[in-house]
Each structure stands twice: as structure tokens, then as C-alpha cells.
Amino acid sequence: MIPQTFNDWTNCIVNACKINPTTDFAEKRLAVYKDHKNAETQKFISLYDEQHHSNIINWLEKIKNNESY
Questions:
Q1: Per DSSP, which regions of the chain are E strands?
Q2: Domain ranges of the chain
Q3: How far is CA 34 from its chain centroid?
Q4: Nearest to 44 by CA among 54, 67, 64
Q5: pTM recorded for the entire structure
């Protein structure tokens, strides 16, 4: 299942993936996902589509800016 909300996504990465969504984590992932030439980003978009890619960037920005988590 692809998470549709910030809460669903954070629940998934924290509980299922055992990832602590820190500011450092968010900054590193944003560097990848904002680079459309990056092979990992291209693969992610091909698997999950542009809308989910956009959602992930927005959610990572929230974490980076300490807005919600």
C-alpha cells in the first residue's frame, strides 16, 4: 500500500522500515529526490508516479522544517 497521508507515511517508515525520520534523514533524501537526473529518483518515479514523488518531497520538507513529526 502506498501511503496517502503524512501520518500514514511516517507510521510506515518508523514502524515497518525502522527509520527514524530526523532532519538529517530528510535533508539526505531531499538531495536525492529533488535531483531528477538521479537514477534512484527516476526509478522511484517510474514505480510510484509523480504525485507520490511530490508527496514524499513535501513530507520530507515537513520533517526538515520540524513542522509535524
A1: none
A2: 21-69
A3: 11
A4: 54
A5: 0.91
Cα–Cα separations (whole angstroms), residue 45 to 13, 18, 31: 18, 23, 15
For residue range 5-46, list pLDDT tens digits in order: 999 999 999 999 999 999 999 999 999 999 999 999 999 999
Copy the grid coordinates of residue 66.
520540524
Amino acid at 9: W
How far is Cα 48 from Cα 23, in angstroms, rounded to an integer?
24
Question: pLDDT grade, residue 68 (50/70/90)?
Answer: low
Distance CA 31, CA 3 (A): 21
Asked if 19 and 13 count as a contact pair (C-beta separation under 8 A), the reply is yes
Residue 58 · residue 26 · CB < 8 Å: no
